């Protein structure tokens, strides 16, 4: 059964955030809130966590996982980013955007798009997510909590606990965080390509 953690959306309790971060370090798969919708998260190098996310979401090997970063220092270790792209990404973060970029050797091979060798990265604008990333001290491997054959992601912590009780290890609940996933922009060719229109404004990429 999944552990259930209820935290304040504006002032998350450090002890609770610490407990969730410890569980991730120990290989747990957690459901947690972001600035767009709930996500599934696990440690960057966790093969078990990756396979469990694929199973829950019924994903194939072409799916772009997202590396949730606390700041640009973390993001810059994971992807190759030139000056023009840097300015565009910098102007849009933190926020509800996922950027697809060529990955560095720091990113485990199983996370990369099999042909493009790219990965998704983002810096969230959410107090609880940022608190968790700060406590964890490393990027969090993530994927939107959208179940197969469902049009919208799950939005309530109690419902996630109820439906995924035996598939995740913990649920971090800070209240409703919306149903609209991130806007996804692919910069792997150097020019922006809008892959998905979501919570982030696409005007500057058009």
TrEMBL record:
Gene3D superfamilies: DHBP synthase. PROSITE patterns: YRDC (PS51163). It comes from the Bacteria. One of its GO terms (molecular function) is double-stranded RNA binding. InterPro entries: DHBP_synth_RibB-like_a/b_dom, Sua5-like_dom, SUA5_domain. Residues 14-200 form the YrdC-like domain. PANTHER family: DHBP SYNTHASE RIBB-LIKE ALPHA/BETA DOMAIN-CONTAINING PROTEIN, THREONYLCARBAMOYL-AMP SYNTHASE. This is tRNA threonylcarbamoyl adenosine modification protein (Sua5/YciO/YrdC/YwlC family). It comes from Streptomyces nymphaeiformis.
């Amino acid at each position: 059964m999944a552990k259930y953690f209820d935290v304040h959306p504006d002032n998350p309790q450090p002890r609770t955030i610490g407990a969730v971060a410890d569980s991730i370090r120990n290989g747990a798969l957690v459901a947690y809130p972001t600035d767009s919708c709930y996500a599934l998260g696990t440690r960057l190098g966790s093969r078990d966590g990756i396979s469990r996310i694929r199973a829950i979401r019924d994903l194939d090997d072409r799916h772009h996982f997202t590396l949730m970063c606390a700041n640009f220092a973390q993001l810059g270790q994971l992807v190759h980013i030139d000056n023009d792209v840097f300015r565009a990404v910098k102007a849009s973060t933190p926020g509800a955007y996922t950027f697809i970029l060529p990955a560095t050797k720091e990113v485990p091979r199983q996370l990369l798009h099999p042909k493009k060798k790219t990965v998704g990265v983002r810096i969230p604008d959410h107090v609880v997510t940022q608190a968790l990333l700060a406590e964890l001290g490393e990027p969090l491997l993530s994927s939107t909590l959208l179940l197969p054959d469902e049009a919208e992601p799950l939005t309530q912590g109690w419902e996630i606990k109820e439906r995924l009780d035996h598939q995740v290890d913990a649920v971090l609940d800070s209240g409703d965080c919306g149903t609209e996933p991130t806007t996804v922009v692919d910069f792997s060719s150097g020019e922006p390509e809008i892959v998905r229109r979501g919570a982030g404004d696409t005007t500057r990429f058009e």
